[in-house]
Amino acid sequence: MILQLKITLKHTSPPVWRRVQLDEQTTFRELHLLIQEAFNWEDAHLHEFMLNQTMHNVSFFDSGNIKIGSAEERDNVFESALDESSEILADYFEQEKNKALYIYDFGDDWQHEIVLENILYPEESVSYPVCLKAKGIAPEEDSIGVWEDEEVELPGKTNEKQVENDINLSFKSLLRQPEMSWEIKRERDIWRSLFAMIDRYKKTKLWDFLADDQIIIVELADTKERVYCSILGNAGQEFGIAVYIGDAGLASLQKLVSNPRQYGMDEVMHQRSLLLSLANRDELEEDDYSLIKRLGIAYRGKKQWPLFRSIKPGYYPWIIDEQEAIILTETLEIIVENANQWKQAPTNVPIVKEDKWLALLPVEKNESINWESKLLKPERVENEKAPAQLMISEIETKRIQKRFPLVEATLEFEGNYFPEPVQNHPAERPVYPVMVIAADQHEGAIIYNQLLQHENYEQHLQATFLEMVEQIEAIPAEIRVENTETLRILKPLFKMLSVHVVQMESLPVITHFYQEMRNNMDQFE
User: Fold this and answer.
1) Where in the chain is the domain with CATH 3.30.420.10?
2) Is a pLDDT exceeding 60 seen at residue 186?
3) Which of 7, 110, 183, 347 is the most core-located residue (most Cβ within 10 A)?
4) What's the pTM?
5) How many CA atoms lie within 13 A of 212 on its CB side?
6) Which has more confidence, 385 or 38?
7) 2-174, which class in CATH?
8) Is the separation of the CB atoms in 159 and 54 below 8 Å?
């Protein structure tokens, strides 16, 4: 990857800075030589880099700095400094706004602030480093010392383009073409293809002809998976496209259509879809903007900036991943190729409440794929999962049977997504943990609850049931569940424990508990 750095000579007026791009595998030794060339220093004095653990607000006086310098100077002067010849930028500059301090000439004390502005994909056939912009001329060598409360006065007017050209000429000895791995090239090409397709989609302005309740079914050629597309923008407010994926996407779409006023966060947490919105710049979050910057793309005007969201059962809405980008690119390509026929006859696309929807199905002809239009009734294909296995040892199960009696009691037992997401690491996608609740139907009271993560859910759910048994010191004779998945997972355990299980359309005590919990959370917010 390529790092874009802004290097500013501190305490000068007018300001002196350079914006450069260089390979992330550049060593700090090479960065030292680059700075010498960029500011026309003579490399006649000692130097050192200073960084800290947070890579923000690096201070000359911070005793906790990481120090990086030359091996000769380190041995003679700075014993604690790391060797700049073996330390590479990628290990330190990992996120935008990471900073470092470069000090040159400890008599004159020229301090250079280095800020990571962007991480980009390398351009093919381009050698780095390259100076993008140069502002001001650096002072002469050995001219004056500066400290925190002083500024050096410099000439006001400079030919910035000439300075930039001179710097790039001086970089010739440092130039190299970065190696790009297959993974990085593939990743770059996936995102470039998506953004190019979005530009084509914007030009169709399909939202001027189709409403968001006119659903288009697209069957993807490679996977044969069907996606259900809603064109957004006919109301003149939100522009883009919503792509509901597979049976889970269709189920959530049909639920939304049947009762839009009651389609809330619970339904979103079970939804499977991809959303492309054409937003304003100020609506983008940092990850959205970083992706666009990484590709070296810029947009102007309102409702022009692509914003992506992946909506997946059990996960917080998040920026899409590479596989989802491929799905969205293929879907947009098919939509764009067929856009003209819908613009000429928009009524040929049925609305969602009609019995049949418009479908585009791949047909192979002469080793190429064509798209055939048909009217199809949208039907979900329920893929039955294999029966669950007993994940708890039989010895443990028999131990529970011996310790606790089977009693005449009816309990509700169910796991549902907890409405507050959990994020274990800032870079990871937040998840909605599953809250498992047991309720006594006769008493109308919650007797047990536990939060479970997604990993090894089947084993943890079975173990949680046994934990509940130990807590109440009894095995209930009848358990009522609502979700088919809960029934599937617990069935082998219930068989071992001789527990009768009944699947219900709803569980009144648990439902009431969730309603009360959400009301309390809404009031708190």
Assistant:
1) 394-524
2) yes
3) 110
4) 0.79
5) 17
6) 38
7) alpha beta
8) no
